[in-house]
Each structure stands twice: as structure tokens, then as C-alpha cells.
């Protein structure tokens, strides 16, 4: 049961890290007028001066679900999706998908883990 909650907590942390990347990673160069470490810590990105290529957000998804009771057992499910390829005009895209689920505990014990992987093709009209 401790493993189940640890996996759910770890999955939530990973999901938050992937969904909200640091805006400072899009900055290519530090302006020359900043000469102290204190200035670097307070650096705000200049969104208007950045090329639009750096502002696109990568659409990754990580879904973690779980629930149950100590008497009946717990269900854990993790699904993820990450982009693999996108055409130049953005109309065609290919995403990789993966999933894991398992029932933990309860009167019948742990179930065998259920793993899966796949691909998702999208065409935008």
C-alpha cells in the first residue's frame, strides 16, 4: 500500500514538472548588462523579443489515477502521451502512448500488471 501511494505521489511530481517547465529554459543568452548573480536570479524573460519557435509548448501528458479501500484493494492506473513527430505545417502529428494498470491488495491479492504501448496519429483539418 505504501508503494501505491509513493507511485501516485511520484507520478504527480513528474506530471507537474512536465506540464509546467521553467520559463528560463527558453532563454538562449544572458544579456550583457547583468553582471551580478542577484541580477541573474531576478531575470524575467522578454517574451516579445524571443523568437516564436522558443515559445511553443511541448504537449506531453501524464495521467495518474488511483483509488479503493484497504478492505477491497486499490486500483492504480498511469497513462502517458508524448509527441514524436509533427509536420512543418502542423496538420500531421504522431504521438507515442503508454499505459500501466494494476489492482493491489484486497481479498484476492495483487493482479498481474497490465502494460501497453502504442501510437496516435492526428490530422487537423
TrEMBL record:
- Compartments reported by the entry: Secreted
Q: Which GO terms describe its biological process?
A: defense response to bacterium; innate immune response
Attacin C-terminal domain ranges (all copies): 75-125
Tell me which GO cellular component terms the UniProt record holds. extracellular region
Main subcellular localization, coarse class? secreted
Regions annotated as coiled coil: none
Q: Mind listing the UniProt keywords for this protein, alphabetically?
A: Antibiotic, Antimicrobial, Immunity, Innate immunity, Secreted, Signal
> What is the annotated signal peptide range for this record?
1-19
* Top-level taxonomic group: Eukaryota
Query: To which protein family does this belong?
Result: Belongs to the attacin/sarcotoxin-2 family.
Q: From the Swiss-Prot or TrEMBL record, give the protein name.
A: Diptericin-A
Please give the organism. Drosophila albomicans
Write the gene name: LOC117570631
